[in-house]
Design a protein that fits this description.
Layout (H helix, E strand, L loop, with lengths): L11 E6 L11 H9 L3 E7 L2 E6 L6 E8 L2 E8 L3 H22 L7 H8 L1 E2 L4 H16 L9 H14 L8 H8 L7 E3 L4 E3 L11 H15 L4 E6 L2 E5 L7 E7 L2 E11 L3 E6 L28 E6 L2 H11 L4 H11 L2 E5 L5 E4 L1
Antiparallel strand pairs: 1-9, 2-3, 3-4, 4-5, 6-8, 7-8, 9-10, 10-13, 11-12, 13-14, 14-15, 15-16
């Protein structure tokens, strides 16, 4: 069975510099694309996995990498006048990305997570996997089970059903969904200092939190390398700004029905922003069944068109934007107030509920 993957292109970008270089705070994806269109580029191969382009015109300070990451097309941009330094940052960032992909990926058969799902137990488990599963359990408890990494059983049920019966068919039977739900419970994951084990038949996905975790790790890498300002975009966005006098970046919240339009803009001040929406991956022709699942009902939630969360860490924003998709407004408000974060809920009629 061919695995279903997101249809949309994921943009993975890093815009980074030292404060002394005076990088423009208003840099956006559109601005980067416009700069590329007015420049010429020189390609150089750093390794079999990394080919970069260096701008030689209006974007002479921009180094670009394009490839595949986290199961989708990816792009990484570093803005810095020193080409050698920029290439080194590209190499180190991609190396960290690949290392974490080898831990969290469901598409790589030899990843740590794939081996855990296949064998049901993992000895001498990778530290990052242990950390992220503990984080997942934390957000499951915080959201009353709305975030649950064991929904992989539901994904496999729906993916197998539509692969067999076609994407124009109805969904799986209630009995099949109920059977899959018996294997959805974060409490079925047992963790020790070095070992992870799952209850029989249970499988884990970290697709609702791993992008945020990787974003945090790459941001930390750039900070530790001495960069004062950076904007990291790996599906989830995180800003790094050590210069309090420098203006913040703005991030736009897109209209799910008209992606070329912005519903609101958000100032990033050492914050992370994540958005979850059912439009990301449809499993059927109508969009009734998507990559998002309510761990309690086994169905795809339809409470909101999309949910965006602003939090100090991308891991937090990623997990909560996933969880909030299945939670009523009153429950979302409780978590938002408890953590002191912000959330934007776009209702089916297009109304925006901003919570802080």
């Amino acid at each position: 069975m061919k695995p279903l993957r997101p249809l949309r292109r994921r943009f993975i970008g890093i815009a980074a510099t030292c404060t002394a270089l005076g990088m423009a705070s208003g840099l956006t994806r559109h601005a980067l694309a416009s700069a590329a269109a007015t420049s010429s580029w020189k390609a150089s191969e750093i390794s079999p996995d990394i080919v970069i382009w260096r701008g030689t015109g209006a974007s002479a300070d921009t180094t670009v990498w394009r490839g595949i990451a986290l199961g989708a097309d990816a792009e990484l941009r570093i803005i810095h006048p020193d080409a050698v330094f920029a290439q080194n940052m590209v190499t180190r960032s991609i190396a960290e990305l690949r290392r974490l992909e080898n831990t969290f990926s469901l598409y790589q058969h030899d990843s740590a997570l794939s081996r855990l799902n296949r064998d049901g137990v993992l000895n001498n488990a990778d530290t990052d996997l242990l950390i992220l599963l503990n984080e997942a359990a934390h957000y499951a408890a915080l959201t009353g089970g709305a975030f649950d990494p064991t929904v992989q059983a539901l994904w496999e049920l729906y993916a197998s059903h539509f692969a067999q019966h076609g994407t124009s068919s109805d969904g799986p039977s209630e009995a099949a969904v109920e059977l899959a739900l018996q294997r959805v419970n974060v409490a079925g994951i047992s963790l020790s200092d070095t070992q992870i084990s799952l209850q029989p038949g249970m499988k884990v996905t970290l697709n609702g939190i791993a992008q945020g975790y990787i974003t945090d790790r790459v941001t930390d890498l750039l900070r530790n390398a001495g960069l004062d300002r950076a904007l990291v975009d790996m599906g989830e966005i995180r800003e790094l700004n050590k210069n309090n006098a420098a203006p913040a970046w703005r991030a736009g919240l897109k209209d799910p029905q008209a992606p070329e339009k912005l519903l609101d803009t958000v100032l990033l001040n050492n914050d992370a922003l994540s958005t979850s929406g059912s439009y990301g991956t449809w499993l059927d022709d109508t969009g009734r069944y998507t990559h998002l699942f309510n761990p309690k009902t086994g169905e795809s939630p339809r409470l909101y068109q999309s949910v965006s969360v602003l939090a100090p860490r991308a891991t937090t924003a990623d997990a909560l934007s996933t969880a909030f998709s299945s939670m009523p407004v009153s429950s979302v408000e409780k978590v938002v107030k408890q953590l002191g974060i912000r959330a934007w809920l776009i209702l089916p009629d297009g109304q925006i509920l901003a919570k802080a």
